[in-house]
Specification:
Elements lengths: L16 H12 L6 E5 L6 H11 L6 E7 L8 H15 L1 H4 L5 H5 L3 H7 L6 H15 L5 H19 L2 E7 L8 E2 L2 E2 L1 H14 L3 E7 L2 H9 L9 E5 L5 H9 L6 H11 L3 H11 L7 H25 L3 H12 L4 H8 L3 H13 L3 E5 L2 E4 L2 H11 L1
Parallel strand pairs: 1-6, 1-7, 2-3, 3-6
Antiparallel strand pairs: 4-5, 8-9
The protein binds adenosine-5'-triphosphate (ATP) and magnesium ion.
Magnesium ion binds next to helix 2.
Length: about 375
């Protein structure tokens, strides 16, 4: 297996056995509509889990798994979400429906032609959906509630007509709350609407993921959120050392010290393990010195690409607070002393950083950076 920076599934997929077994056996049950909410840090492997689940259901004819990443939206509009999600759902159902063409090709076909292409009775339901999608491009100012209703009832409709269960997997679900319509945010109302529909589903299970703890909390995890108690919540955690070892030793000979070094550097976050592995592959032998050198090179060269822009998007006060945490200050008081600012201000910026997913409040009054590699990059770049 080659090291990769893309989400993995199948042969390249490591660990998560217990979580996957549990999810697959629950989701396999055609009588259950229980779903899952996966949360975890950036780059920890959420997308890979959803894609691996989808792969495991490929040969299950009773279950149709749809994978949809919200981050792939370009305009971030409700219409775009509904159009693209509907097409994804129709495409996932192509084998069940015997549909030869992809939804994207079909919506580009004139309606009169479409009638000819899709004349058998099985296609009736798809035809109506496609007609609706095509008309969206022509109509302006369509009722957004209607649109959401239409889209989120599609899996239920298709599942009923094909006697299957639909597994709707929405990656980075909380980002739906950022959706805009006519320049105003209506995302939160949409999340509530989806939830109301979800209550009535009989053949659709929802699996969602999210990386930023605070937005995930608003959408799912807190008791005030619409989905609380409707989804089984699971945290995706970093790899244990044995899985770091499994990932690294598939591709080259590496000493125990070497594995320890990479495991500590990456904090078990698979993205960094893959990245260091990829860089090490260029070398013939892998000694501890090589590894340390590569880690430095990674921080210098890749770190700038990965972190710089995000860091520069923070406000100057937020940056200062982050740098001071990287310096080793963990309490608001220590940070305030270092930054020569008031504790109340520091608390405010800590809250912003927490909301943006950079800072983790470990316990009352004690803050850490979420990502230890980002923290190390801060240390080496600014301290
Ligand atoms: N189970 C796994 N086995 C091996 N590699 C993995 C595994 N999970 C994730 N990775 C690697 O980690 C990286 C990040 O994975 P993935 O995109 O699934 O994470 P994510 O949590 O969805 O990230 P993001 O926050 O960027 O959306 C990829 O390089 C992937 O190859
Ligand atoms: Mg992802």
């Amino acid at each position: 297996m080659r090291f990769t920076l893309q989400p993995v599934k199948g042969e390249g997929f490591i660990d998560r056995q217990e979580l996957l077994d549990e999810m697959v056996s629950e989701l396999m049950d055609t009588k259950s509509t229980t779903g899952y909410a996966l949360y975890g840090k950036r780059r920890i492997g959420k997308t890979s889990i959803l894609k691996e689940i989808q792969r495991r259901f490929e040969s299950e004819h009773k279950i149709v798994a749809v994978y949809f990443p919200v981050w792939d939206l370009i305009e971030f509009s409700v219409v775009e979400l509904c159009q693209r999600l509907s097409m994804e759902i129709i495409d996932a159902y192509r084998p069940c429906l015997g549909l030869r063409y992809k939804a994207k090709e079909l919506i580009q076909t004139p309606l009169t032609m479409l009638r000819k292409l899709l004349d058998s009775s099985e296609f009736k339901i798809v035809y109506r959906e496609l007609e609706f999608l095509v008309s969206l491009n022509l109509r302006k100012g369509i009722d957004k509630n209607l649109l959401i209703e239409h889209t989120f009832s599609l899996p239920e409709k298709l599942a009923k007509s094909t006697d299957t269960k639909c597994l709707l997997m929405i990656d980075e679900f909380p980002s739906i709350s950022e959706l805009k319509s006519d320049n105003s945010k209506i995302g939160d109302a949409i999340i509530k609407k989806i939830r109301t529909m979800f209550e009535d589903w009989e053949r659709t299970a929802l699996c969602i993921s999210g990386s930023i703890r605070s937005t995930m909390k608003l959408a799912i995890l807190s008791s005030a959120s619409p989905f609380y108690r409707q989804l089984i919540i699971k945290e995706v955690k970093p790899f244990e050392r044995e899985h770091t070892e499994e990932l690294l030793s598939r591709d080259f000979e590496i000493t125990e010290d070497g594995i320890d070094e990479i495991h500590n550097f990456s904090a078990g976050i698979p993205f960094y393990i893959q990245f260091i592995g990829k860089m090490l592959k260029r070398r013939k032998r892998v000694t501890l010195e090589d590894i340390k050198e590569i880690e430095e090179e990674f921080l210098r060269e890749e770190g700038d690409i990965l972190f710089k822009e995000e860091f520069e998007n923070l406000s100057s006060k937020e940056r200062l607070v982050a740098i001071n945490i990287a310096k080793g200050c963990h309490t608001p008081k220590e940070i305030a002393n270092e930054a020569r600012d008031k504790i109340t201000n520091v608390n405010r910026f800590l809250k912003y950083l927490e909301e943006k997913g950079y800072v983790l409040k470990k316990e009352r009054g004690y803050y850490m950076m979420e990502d230890p590699v980002f923290e190390r990059w801060l240390k080496e770049s600014f301290i």
